[in-house]
Design a protein that fits this description.
This protein has 8 helices and 8 strands; from the N terminus they run βαβαβαβαβαβαβαβα. It has an 8-stranded mixed sheet, with helices on both faces. The longest helix has 18 residues.
């Protein structure tokens, strides 16, 4: 994976934009995807303004972004999850990796951000796997890294990232991507079905942030070797 292109679908949103900044700063080629071309281009310009004109960031519509990428990262509200997957479905190539960052928060149905919804498929990531082409390499990651920490590029991120997926090779590739973010340690979370546990931790962390009046609560897994 020495040469790759990352498309962040939803890269104009807070968390997606934070991921864009971190990967572009690490030297990755990043495409911001949006339903609106102008919005994507504006976000790309904003990223270059922050990182410098040498940052390899561009913006385009979601299907074009996905078609041009080797890794497609989905970072959208759960209410838009199905529609956004359908919008890039035909752009997914057999060797592509699809990374689902989506959390089924109750805000999708007018509820609280500190509670999670039950998903028929088990998790948002499993929903994605059902809707995407059968050959798609699906993983889930980055649920528990908050947007504020990602966008504060002058500081390291104090959090582990748990990566789930049915293919060990896919998990390894996404774990490598996670470690491009300073301060992040990637943790192998096993099969994709474990995403339902990891996704729900996000709702717990949001509640902790609210109660402690902070904005960067994360998680660390203890007792395993550092990578």
């Amino acid at each position: 994976m020495a040469s790759r292109t990352i498309a962040v679908i939803g890269g104009t949103g807070d968390q997606g934009f934070g991921l864009v900044l971190r990967w572009a700063k690490a030297g990755e080629k990043v495409i911001i995807g949006s339903r609106q071309l102008q919005k994507a281009e504006d976000a790309a310009k904003k990223a270059r303004d922050i990182l410098g004109e040498n940052a390899n960031v561009s913006g385009t519509e979601n299907p074009k972004a996905a078609a041009a990428a080797d890794i497609i990262v989905m970072s959208v509200p759960f209410a838009a999850h199905v529609d956004m997957i359908k919008s890039v479905h035909d752009s997914i190539q057999p060797d592509d990796i699809f990374v689902d960052v989506v959390v089924p928060l109750s805000t999708a149905v007018g509820g609280s951000a500190s509670t999670a919804l039950g998903v028929w498929d088990g998790s948002a990531a499993q929903q994605a796997a059902r809707l995407l082409p059968p050959h798609t390499k699906v993983a889930s990651a980055f649920h528990n890294v908050v947007a504020e920490a990602l966008q504060d590029i002058g500081k390291n991120v104090d959090s582990d990232v748990i990566v789930c997926g049915d293919s060990q090779e896919t998990r390894k590739a996404v774990m490598e991507l996670a470690t491009k973010i300073p301060g992040v340690r990637a943790v192998d979370g096993g099969r994709l079905e474990n995403s339902r546990i990891v996704e729900q931790i996000t709702a717990l962390l949001i509640g902790i942030n609210i109660r402690y009046k902070v904005n960067a609560a994360g998680i660390r897994i203890t007792g395993i070797p550092s990578t």
